[in-house]
């Protein structure tokens, strides 16, 4: 009895097993042609341009501090929403929510995108951290903070990898010039299709590598922007003086400290953790004249904007849940909204630059809206 029932069981199962095998074989013999084709980077439509309504919106995401995903716990969140309930997936959810709410034209990831010490594989962690941008096909640009390289990839490898990721407009360095660090590049935003400025840059974005850590006279300090980077910046700005510009880098410059005394909008809740070296970034930006605002990361509890020599310095405010923060002080993101002026025939130059922040609370509360720049009606 035993033998006959087991024979019938095998005869019943055999066709199933065989078809399973065939299925596997057929996928081997007749592979999906798209799967076999080399995998090219998906690029957004380039060059980037203002929308038909004359606006261009940038979402700044500062300090995601991504680790391994679901296994990486949140820091500094209220106990009732923390513990096993909270992980890097909360950071991902926040990114999806802000993308859906604001529909940005570009996302600027301003460093400490991954927290090297908690990421067992840098590439895997970065792919997961950035994935919502790719999912929504939003062009994105990234620079490095001081923690990104603390996992399995060097700063150079990280920038190369990010430059090759889908929808990325990140670049490692300007071609043909020797510039310190990795992630110094220029992105121009052209006029909308159909406008007379379709081939002209109306807004310039300068991304700079502010380094990680350095030792100066035997004392540890943070990185800073070097003279070769400033020389490249001055030269690039010279070719683009007609249009306003923004700069993005991770570590603040020493002068940001002084805003405590001269005024700021937003919150200044921790010391500015900058380098002890002042390499003259503010002097360079002031002499260039095109940069209207600088967007920083690094100090998660600071989310203010303050004016230094007519240039706004704005923090993004901490975004990621594995980054240090403060319980009951929601994680946040900054939006930078630039609008063109309507000329007689079509859109012309930039007219105004606004910024605000979104909190990761139930309503994605919008706070601290302010004007950063407006073209004066008096032409000199
Ligand atoms: C993280 O997400 C979980 C699941 O959606 C939620 O229950 C928890 O409140 C979130 N934690 C925080 C700090 O937002
Ligand atoms: C923009 O450049 C394209 C290609 O070079 C050219 O055909 C077109 O006439 C230019 N348009 C304007 C408005 O300058």
- Characterize the overall form: globular
Q: Specify the CATH class.
A: Alpha Beta
Q: CA-to-CA gap between the ends? A: 103 Å
**Subunit organisation of the chains:** single chain
Give the spatial strand order of the biggest sheet.
3-2-1-12-13-14
| Low-confidence parts | 1-28
CATH topology, which one?
Answer: Purple Acid Phosphatase, chain A, domain 2
Fourth-level CATH superfamily:
Metallo-dependent phosphatases
What fraction of residues sit in β-strands? 15-25%
Q: Name the bound molecules.
A: 2-acetamido-2-deoxy-beta-D-glucopyranose
Based on the coordinates given, report the CATH architecture: 4-Layer Sandwich
Encode the helix/strand succession as letters. HHEHEHEHEEEEHEHHEEEEEE
How many distinct helices?
Answer: 8
Mean pLDDT: 92
**What is the gyration radius calculated from CA atoms?**
24 Å
Structural class, by secondary structure, is alpha/beta
In helices, the fraction of residues equals: 25-40%
Q: Can you count the beta strands?
A: 14
Protein name: Calcineurin-like phosphoesterase domain-containing protein
Cofactor: Zn(2+)
Subcellular location: Secreted
InterPro entries: Calcineurin-like_PHP, Metallo-depent_PP-like, PAP14/16/28/29
Model description:
The chain is α/β, with parallel strands linked by helices and 380 residues long. The chain has a single domain, classed as 4-Layer Sandwich (Purple Acid Phosphatase, chain A, domain 2). It is built from eight helices and 14 strands. The strands form three sheets. Strands 3-2-1-12-13-14 form a six-stranded mixed beta sheet. Strands 4-5-8-9-11-10 form a six-stranded mixed beta sheet, with helices on one face. Strand 13 (347-359) and strand 14 (366-374) form a beta hairpin. Helix 3 packs parallel to helix 4 and helix 6 runs parallel beside helix 8. The longest helix has 28 residues, at 2-29. The termini are far apart. Bound molecules: 2-acetamido-2-deoxy-beta-D-glucopyranose (NAG) (2 copies). One 2-acetamido-2-deoxy-beta-D-glucopyranose (NAG) binds next to loops.
């Amino acid at each position: 009895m035993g033998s006959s029932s087991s024979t019938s069981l095998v005869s019943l199962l055999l066709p199933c097993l065989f078809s399973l095998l065939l299925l596997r074989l057929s996928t081997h013999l007749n592979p999906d042609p798209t799967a076999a084709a080399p995998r090219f980077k998906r690029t957004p439509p380039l060059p980037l341009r203002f929308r038909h309504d004359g606006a261009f919106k940038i979402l700044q995401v500062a300090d995601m501090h991504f680790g391994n995903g679901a296994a990486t716990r949140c820091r500094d969140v209220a106990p009732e929403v923390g513990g096993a309930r909270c992980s890097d997936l909360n950071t991902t959810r926040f990114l999806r929510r802000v993308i859906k709410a604001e529909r940005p034209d570009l996302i600027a990831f301003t460093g400490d995108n991954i927290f090297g010490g908690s990421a067992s594989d840098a590439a895997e962690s970065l792919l997961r951290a950035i994935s919502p941008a790719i999912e929504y096909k939003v062009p994105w640009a990234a620079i490095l903070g001081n923690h990104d390289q603390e996992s399995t990839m060097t700063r150079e490898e990280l920038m190369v990898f990010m430059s090759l990721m889908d929808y990325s407009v990140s670049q490692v360095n300007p071609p043909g010039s020797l510039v310190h660090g990795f992630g110094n590049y220029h992105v121009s935003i052209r006029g909308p299709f159909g406008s007379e400025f379709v081939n002209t840059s109306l807004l310039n974005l300068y991304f700079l590598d502010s380094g990680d850590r350095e030792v100066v006279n035997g004392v540890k300090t943070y990185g800073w922007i070097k003279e070769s980077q400033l020389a490249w910046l001055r030269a690039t700005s010279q070719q683009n003086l007609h249009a306003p510009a923004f700069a993005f880098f991770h570590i603040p410059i020493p002068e940001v400290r002084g805003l405590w005394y001269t005024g700021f909008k937003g919150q200044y809740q921790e010391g500015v953790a900058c380098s002890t070296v002042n390499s003259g970034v503010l002097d360079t930006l002031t002499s260039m004249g095109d940069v209207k605002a600088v967007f920083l990361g690094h100090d998660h509890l600071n989310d203010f904007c303050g004016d230094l020599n007519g240039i706004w310095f704005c923090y993004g405010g901490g975004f990621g849940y594995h980054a240090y923060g403060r319980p009951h002080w929601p994680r946040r993101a900054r939006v930078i909204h630039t609008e063109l002026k309507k000329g007689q025939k079509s859109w012309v130059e930039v007219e105004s630059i606004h910024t605000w922040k979104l909190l990761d609370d139930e309503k994605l509360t919008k706070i601290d809206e302010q004007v950063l720049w407006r073209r004066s009606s008096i032409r000199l």
